[in-house]
Design a protein that fits this description.
The chain contains eight helices and five strands, in the order E-E-H-E-H-H-H-H-E-E-H-H-H. It has about 170 residues and is an alpha+beta fold.
């Protein structure tokens, strides 16, 4: 369900997923309002931000079905945090969700350590499940899944992610 509200002369879109509990909607609205995906430690002192605390609360409170729905949220930061949370639930099949987001070119701002970066949401999804990137404890792609993913990235001209360019560069060096 999509709700549109008018306040102070502005039209504002609010996402309200059918079947989503109020607690989860409040968390995701706060995450979206902040708009930046923060890691667990940012800045010189490695501070834990309120945004990361919201993510931890979302991860703890949301049901797997809610997190799966949230990977399709209209707001990229919500999609990406939902996916990150799902990767930490070992019994969830992440691969179909990952494949669906190979076309997700929405802009996402991330803040890891002292580095603020801008990337496409689909690239963030890929980074989360790539061994040695982002979260070291969550689900990572198997060699077979990586091979399938590489084939899809190389074969589909509609995919515009930076990961595709990196993969093409690697193949050209060989």
């Amino acid at each position: 369900m999509l709700l549109v509200s008018f306040s102070a002369g502005r039209c504002q879109t609010i996402v309200a997923s059918a079947g989503m509990r109020h607690e989860i909607r409040v968390l995701t609205d706060s995450i979206a309002k902040e708009g930046i995906l923060f890691s667990d430690a940012v800045g010189i002192i490695g501070a834990k931000t309120k945004q990361w605390q919201r993510f931890e609360q979302l991860k703890k409170s949301a049901k797997t079905e809610e997190l799966t729905k949230l990977t399709d949220d209209s707001r990229p930061v919500v999609r990406c945090y939902a996916f990150l949370a799902l990767t930490e639930r070992r019994k969830v099949n992440i691969f179909p969700t990952l494949l669906k987001h190979l076309y997700d070119t929405a802009k996402l701002t991330t803040f890891y350590g002292c580095i603020v970066d801008s990337r496409m949401a689909g690239d963030y999804f890929l980074d989360v499940v790539t061994p040695g990137y982002i979260d070291k404890t969550g689900y990572k792609l198997t060699k077979q899944q990586s091979a399938v993913l590489d084939s899809i990235l190389l074969a589909d001209p509609k995919i515009k992610l930076a990961a595709k360019s990196h993969l093409l560069q690697q193949h050209q060096k060989k």
